[in-house]
Amino acid sequence: MTVPPEGYNGKVAFVTGAASGIGRATALAFARAGAQVALADLSADGLKETTRLIAADGGRQALALTCDVTNEQDVKAAVDKAVEDFGRIDAVFNNAGIEQPVKPATDISKDEWDRIIGVSLTGVFLCLKAQIPHMVRQGGGAIVNVSSGAGVKGFQGQAAYAAAKHGVIGLTKSAALDYAADNVRINAICPGIIDTEMIRRFGDTRPGGREGLIADEPIGRLGKPEEIASAVLWLCSDGGAFTTGTALVVDGGQTT
Ligand code: NAP
Question: How confident is the model over 144-153, as pLDDT tens digits?
Fold first, then answer.
């Protein structure tokens, strides 16, 4: 499952949630593999840092787009700007998402529910709505939507997060069928527990903390953002050309 080092020369990648964690690592990996990269996130400061890291890594200039994935106009403007500047979008990682404080299902307020579903599920839908027409027009493309281990099994205290992440898989599989004949491949990725700011925040609120999270990983450690990035690059590459509508679990055995 390796992507040739220069496998994305001449290609354009678009990554949401690119200011931190898994999104930043994936944006860096696309750039390292030769892609021009558009970065979308709420955090302008975080995007500035990702842009700096990409330039320091290989001298490439990334396009930073401040964007709230829950806002349809923002998302459309960001995707259209990437296409305007780079001419097309070949590979997409719809990765922006937020965590849920640990609590039983009926303790979740309606506002918390709306926020979690809004960012982690509706945000992916709005991205697909803006991205797919460009890909159909240009003759194809590949999209990976971020789900989670919580997209394939239940997790205690995580009802809204798990509902959003299960929803991402249903959305991905259905949209993959809608656009397979247009050469637009759409897959989901289900990371296990990956060492990012989100998990540092989550570990602080969860009984057992970080050690408890490590204990949940049969492989005996947390995953690295780069280990998700490499799977995303493979799914979007020519090597993944026959793969669509799948939910690829990359989780150190957590959900096995
Ligand atoms: P992270 O470090 O918190 O990064 C998430 C990024 O998304 C942040 O830069 C955040 O910006 C941005 N974001 C949040 N809401 C947004 C919005 N409405 N519009 C645009 N950008 C927004 O998290 P991560 O761990 O890398 O997680 C990335 C994705 O992987 C999430 O969807 C998460 O659910 C999923 N995931 C993570 C793990 C894990 O163990 N880390 C496991 C399974 C799935 P701000 O910082 O400004 O909010």
Answer: 999 999 999 9
Q: Using CA atoms, how far apart are residues 108 and 198, in angstroms rounded to an integer?
A: 19
CB 67 within 8 A of CB 75: yes
Residue 196 near ligand 1, beta carbon < 6 Å = yes
Annotated active-site residue 8? The verdict is no
Q: Whose CA is nearest to atom 34 of ligand 1?
A: 97
The values of phi and psi at residue 106, to 5°, are: -80, -5
Q: Quick check: CB of 191 below 6 Å from ligand 1?
A: yes
**Which residue puts its alpha carbon closest to atom 21 of ligand 1?**
41
Segment holding 65, helix H or strand E: strand 63-66
User: Tokens 């205690």 identify what position?
Assistant: 156
Express each pLDDT in 206-253 by its tens digit: 888 999 999 999 999 999 999 999 999 999 999 999 999 999 999 999
> What distance in angstroms lies between residue 198's CA and the mean position of ligand 1's atoms?
7
Alpha-carbon 140 to chain mean position: 19
8, two tokens: 């994305």
Q: How far apart are CA 248 and CA 185, in angstroms?
A: 14
Tokens of 156: 């205690």
Round the CA-based radius of gyration of the chain to a whole number and report it: 17
Nearest to 144 by CA among 178, 180, 187, 184: 187
Please report the atom of ligand 1 found closest to the CA of residue 222: 40
- Catalytic one among 86, 125, 161, 202? 161
Using a cut of 0.85, tell me whether the model's pTM lies above it.
yes
Among positive and negative, which fits the CA dihedral 81, 116, 22, 89? negative
